[in-house]
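Fold these two proteins, one after the other.
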Amino acid sequence: MKSVYDRLRLMAALIAVVLLAGCQILPEERPALRGTGDLGLIIERASGSVLVVDTTEKAVLDRVEGLGNLSHASVVYSRDGRYGYVFGRDGGLTKVDLLTQTIERRIVQAGNSIGGAISQDGQYLAVSNYEPGGVRVFDSETLEQVADIPANYEGQDGETRQSKTVGLVDAPGNRFVFSLFDAGEIWVLDMKNSEPEVTRHEAGAQPYDALITGQGRWYVAGLFGEDGLSMVDLWNPEQGARHVLSDYGRDGERLPVYKMPHLEGWAIAGDRAFVPAVGGHEVLEVAMDSWDLAGRIPVHGQPVFVMASPTHRQIWVSFAHPNNDVVQVIDPQTSEIIRTLEPGEAVLHMEFSPRGETVWISARDSNRVTVYDTRTMEKITTLKAKKPSGIFFTSRAHRLGL
């Protein structure tokens, strides 16, 4: 016969088993594990929010709010694709967790900023500022500032001023490259050591935007104050900047420029680049071996983005107001327009899925994003969004200059 003590011990053991069973997480209750390779963010510019989207399911997962002024917002990603860093026009820098769909951290680092970049090793974030000017660099984990690079230059009156900075991109070797709009210079910021190093190049009048080619060699800045482009060979930076494409710009009939084209939207297919003309209703073809103008393609309006699909078999073109309800597709082999689409009113941005089977197009005034099949160029679906603008997928985490 068991003692009272033994019976109490048995009862305690049974209670413990029951409690442990009650605390056990059943398989259907466990949070689903997933990667981030097919996720992305869509900017909702008017409401200070972003949509977290799934490019496989072609669906919106959630909305994250409280990101401030997103009127000219852009996004870069951590190396693992979990975090999106959103650069707001109000100087805000927000770290968004795509898995939890929440804000991890947020700071306001300046009064007016125009975009940013993440270093090759993913350690640093650089932000390009209009006010107060210059570039500031932050730790990507904590968002603590690690460097402040004032874009100082000497004005015509001999006074020292600080320039607005534009065209900020990442480059190989933990470098950032950017242009000084007011000073007419291109700076290369080297962050490989504890002390940042800056190399300066004369660029030309009022560089307004820039790009870096996919292999990280050529940094090309568009010039607002003169025709042509300024280019630095980052493999041979000691050669300085050189002026190319003197006939690129508002040559011939000088039409009003409703929106300056984004150079980051340049399309490179084969041995040619397809470039938006400034103020003209043309896409320009540029020979990549000589950087000479090789042809002109008449299009629907003033191009803003001219983007190549990941396969380089199609060139997709969006336009400035008042012709911004249309997107045209060019065959780079024939230089002919093969399709004209109408995704909605005020098309602002396009983004290809990681392997290019779809393209997502935002239409701000129609409050929607349309997803097209790039093979058939037929609409697959539309997603509701509040005044959508930029679309940024996590595949950007593994590409230079985006």
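Now the second one:
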Amino acid sequence: MIYTSGSTGTPKGVVVSHRNLAARVAWMREAYGLGPGDRMVQFASLSFDTHAEEIYPALAAGARLELLPEGGVTLPDHLDQVTVLDLPTAYWHALVDDIDEIAWPPTLRLVILGGEQVHEAAVARWRRRFGDRTRLVNTYGPTEATIIATAAELDGSPGRPPIGVPIADTSVLLLDAAGQEVPPGAPGELCVGGAGVATGYLARPGLTTERFPVLRGERIYRTGDLARWRSDGRLEFLGRLDDQVKVRGFRIEPGEIEAWLLTHPGVGQAAVAVRRETLVGYVVGTAGGEELAGYLAGALPAHMVPTLWVNLTTLPLTGNGKLDRAALPAPEAGPRTRTAPRGDAEELVAEIFGEVLGIEEVGAFDDFFALGGHSLLATRAVARLRAAVEVDVPIRTLFARSTVADLAAAVEELLVAELAELSDEEAARLMETGS
């Protein structure tokens, strides 16, 4: 049972059978060539359906699973023997941004992506760095189709990266509003059939009938995604037919968050949107962002709680009275007392925070996450910090000491500790060169 977002404020329980999962595991094991010699990172949490395409195929093939550090969101330090990475696309994009600053394992042979549209520029950069040494596979599939429905090998060909072709025992139809197949090249709703289609939604017979209709004697799942068949016979993802969005690989329906916000007595109107891979809550009422974040945290998973908040006197509307999401203003940091960074370490950390978060001025006591940072941006910030100081700065250090001053102090402590491990001759040479 995997719960996914719902527009009514109640998540939908997707009933996935053992037969569904067995079919997918068998395909993954064969398609990825998994065997006892492989080492695969288990990146996804157990609350995210992607964990099933890491744990079960690896164990079924006799491969080894490398676990993330407790509470971690980055790859483990012992990457030197890893052969397979299965990553959310947005996380991979962040890694590719700093591709030359990461110690990639020489054994890496396969990277699997999924969750969002892959950027053409990122594939090109990856290929320039790795050539044909690693396979890069882009996968597509909702929970209702048991994780994966289509897959594409990304070879760096120019153009928008495709989501590929149906995998084994899977069928794909592109339908118009009348339920008729569209011709090649025309957009249509992507509908999935075959071995991976889930049983339906738990205790939601009406919704199950709507989203899992029977067509030509086969039960299919209407994804709500828009796609087209390209001239090369592969599928291209075009977007959503509704307001559903993805943030760091998680499917989110803003209406679900909005429905919960409207149950708070201090909220009269509410809207939720995505800005730079960050959820932003817009509210009309007396409640503040900190109060509302705590309120939502008691009802929704962490990835559905907005990071930034904007209070408005009224929500923008279109000419026909509907919410005008395009007119929602970008969040502003607002007035705050700023203390300039003090010393080289704080100046370095402040500069990196500013680059990663897109903020011109960052003060000594500014908090990375209060400024709009999240786990993916934290990974990028730590990678740049490691490259700048040539010291291993654990990602957990940023989470525990997230202000400029605190992180700068932590970096200085790490430098002192490393210096203490050097011989007197090495330390003296470093001090003379100013390294």
